[in-house]
Write a structure and sequence with these properties.
Elements (H helix, E strand, L loop, with lengths): L2 H5 L4 H10 L4 H12 L13 E2 L1 H4 L11 H8 L7 E2 H10 L6 H12 L9 H12 L6 H15 L9 H10 L12
Antiparallel strand pairs: 1-2
Helix pairs in contact: 3-6, 5-7, 7-10
C-alpha cells in the first residue's frame, strides 16, 4: 500500500483538519489510514468513507484480547451502532496514542468504564471493571465487596455512592498508571 498511495485518498484540507483534531502528523494519519484499510478484505476493501463493524474491529491487534474492547468500540462509534468510520478510527487511535494528553485519556477511560452510561461510575460499573481486569482469577464476593468499598473510600469524595467525572480525574491525577495502559502503538 504505502504512504504515497494513501496520500492520494485525502485532500490537503482534510489532512490539515485531521492534524488539528488529533495528536498525529500527516505521515502518522496516513499510517493510521493504512491500518484502517488493512481491516478490509480483497472482496470488501476499505476507503475513507467506509465503516467497519464491531466484529471486524475486534480483529485489530490492539483490541483482540482487550477485556474492554466492546466498550472501546461503543464509545468511539459516532453512530452509536458499534461501527466505526475512518474518522472514528482515527479518533480512537489518537486517544490511545502515547502522545495523547492525560486529560483526554482520562475522559475516554471514564466513558469506557461507565458501563451503564449514566455519567457516573457506580457499584455495578466498578464490579464489572474489576471482573474484566481480573479475568479468570475472580475474587470472592467478600473480597470484591472489600475492594469496592476501598475504591469508594479513596475516590467518592462527596460520598454519594458513585464516582463522578471530577472524582475520576482526581483518581487519575493521584494514580496516573490507571490510564497508562490506554495506548496503542502505531
Amino acid at each position: 500500500m504505502g504512504t504515497s498511495n494513501s496520500v492520494k485518498n485525502f485532500t490537503e484540507e482534510e489532512l490539515r483538519h485531521y492534524r488539528k483534531l488529533t495528536v498525529f502528523t500527516k505521515n502518522e494519519i496516513l499510517h493510521v489510514y493504512e491500518k484502517f484499510q488493512s481491516l478490509g478484505t480483497k472482496d470488501e476493501p476499505l476507503d475513507k468513507d467506509s465503516k467497519i463493524s464491531r466484529e471486524v474491529m475486534y480483529n485489530l491487534k490492539e483490541l483482540r484480547v482487550n477485556p474492554f474492547r466492546d466498550r472501546i468500540v461503543t464509545v468511539f462509534s459516532s453512530r452509536g451502532d458499534g461501527s466505526l468510520t475512518f474518522e472514528d478510527f482515527l479518533d480512537m487511535m489518537s486517544v490511545f496514542s502515547v502522545k495523547s494528553p492525560r486529560e483526554v485519556k482520562a475522559e475516554y477511560a471514564f466513558r469506557i468504564y461507565d458501563f451503564d452510561e449514566d455519567d457516573y461510575i457506580g457499584y455495578e460499573d466498578i464490579k464489572e471493571l474489576v471482573n474484566r481486569q481480573t479475568g479468570e482469577e475472580t475474587l470472592t464476593a467478600m473480597d470484591l465487596e472489600r475492594l469496592i468499598d476501598n475504591i469508594y473510600d479513596e475516590s467518592d469524595i462527596d460520598e454519594d455512592g458513585t464516582i463522578s467525572y471530577p472524582e475520576f480525574e482526581n483518581i487519575v491525577e493521584n494514580c496516573p498508571e490507571l490510564i497508562h495502559r490506554f495506548r496503542f502503538r502505531l
